[in-house]
Design brief:
The chain is mainly α and 392 residues long. Helices cover 79% and strands 0% of the residues. It has two domains: 323 residues, no CATH class; 64 residues, no CATH class.
Length: 392
């Protein structure tokens, strides 16, 4: 292998290591917050299942990263390396501060920025206007249907605040309409459009799943002894945390897989985009090692600052987050596991009322989510543009 290719693989593995370090909070924050496991036990559990996850599912996300964002031929080794280095700096900086951001979106922004600096805006694979129109129509129809269904149920139960049910129904209808259109292959949502849509959808989907799951658990367990139920959910949380870690590993570990495979194709080592087993193994190992180090400042933010979690809430949040990640992994949509679990924690917190969630902290987190892709793309563009001027 050429030295630059070896350097590129090393940089991609460093990115996955930092991803694991930063996103360790996603896998362990709930189980640490409820004191089911010690932090060391929690990161060990998460690291193991992060390693297992990519071996159980498809490599569809790796193909999206390597082929579905930037047009083939423009992801040169230099473009990839600079983009990943910029993304890694952003991940490390936010981990140091303690702000949970998306490693996925940092990487996407970095690759877009360097690719545009190298080849212009036409190298980015943008969705067609008809597809965007289809997404808008589907979302509107889903929102209207959800609002009418929930308002009808409220009217049947003779509830007074119909307007609130219209808003809630519209929200859930919109959130579920896009994933359903993917499941039934109504809309071919993938690539950059899927990533941008799920910036909003994945935390809201996590919020919805965890909120509904939490309400169901409260309803079913309301007459049982609280101490006994805490003991039961303490044990169930180990299962749900493992399930979530499998989803996290299967989704996030594929980022380095896609990047490394793209570099191998560019360098002529591979003739087509097929992820080799050794790439799967080293990418999984890198994210697992990162998880073992633990991003403790982010763990504190996720575990304590958003809301106070009880064992049943931790179980609901992890189970909801695992379901979201399982869905998007199967359909090849690279999403932020940070967004998914954050939404789930907000959802289970909201079952205790609006004041149970620290919305000021939530606003800080959401702001970091919104600026990640534009910021990393801009920084990567400037860095690569300067490098190009120096090379000339």
């Amino acid at each position: 292998m050429e030295p630059i290719l070896i350097l590129g693989i090393f940089v991609a593995l460093i990115f996955n290591f930092l991803n694991g370090l930063h996103d360790a909070a996603n896998s362990i924050s709930t189980i640490v917050a409820t004191r089911v496991l010690t932090p060391v036990q929690a990161v060990t559990l998460a690291a193991f299942f992060n390693l297992v996850g990519p071996l159980l599912f498809t490599t569809a996300i790796a193909k999206t990263i390597g082929k579905g964002i930037i047009a083939p031929g423009w992801l040169t080794l230099e473009v990839i390396i600079v983009g990943i280095v910029v993304a890694s700096f952003w991940i490390y900086a936010t981990a140091y501060i303690g702000i949970p951001i998306s490693s996925t979106h940092a990487m996407v922004g970095g690759l877009i920025g360097t690719s545009v600096a190298y080849g212009g805006m036409n190298v980015v694979i943008l969705p067609s206007l008809s597809l965007i129109g289809g997404v808008i129509v589907t979302g509107i129809c889903g929102a209207i249907s959800g609002a009418l269904i929930l308002a009808g149920l409220a009217r049947f139960k003779k509830e007074q605040r119909i307007r609130d049910y219209l808003i809630i129904g519209g929200f859930f209808g919109f959130i579920f309409s896009i994933p359903l259109s993917i499941i039934f292959q109504i809309l071919p949502i993938s690539g950059l459009l899927g990533i941008i849509l799920f910036i909003v959808i994945s935390p809201c989907l996590g919020f919805a799943f965890a909120f509904l799951f939490g309400c169901l658990v409260i309803r079913l367990c309301r007459n049982y002894n609280q101490q006994i139920m805490n003991k039961i959910f303490n044990k169930l949380q180990i299962i749900s945390a493992s399930f979530y870690s499998i989803g996290h590993g299967s989704n996030d570990a594929q980022h380095a897989m896609g990047i490394i495979t793209a570099m191998l194709v560019t360098a002529g080592v591979l003739s087509d985009f097929s992820v080799p087993l050794w790439v799967i193994l080293i990418s999984s190992a890198a994210i697992s090692l990162g998880t073992l180090t633990g991003g403790w400042k982010i763990v504190r933010t996720m575990a304590k600052r958003i809301t106070h979690l009880r064992p049943y809430q931790g179980f609901c949040a992890e189970a909801g987050g695992g379901l979201v990640l399982l869905f998007v992994t199967l359909f090849g949509v690279p999403v932020s596991s940070t967004h998914a679990i954050s939404g789930c924690i907000m959802g289970v917190g909201a079952t205790q009322g609006n004041n149970a969630v620290q919305w000021s902290v939530v606003r800080q987190i959401v702001t970091a989510w919104i600026v990640t892709i534009p910021l990393t793309a801009t920084c990567a563009y400037l860095v690569f543009f300067i490098i190009l001027q120096i090379w000339k």
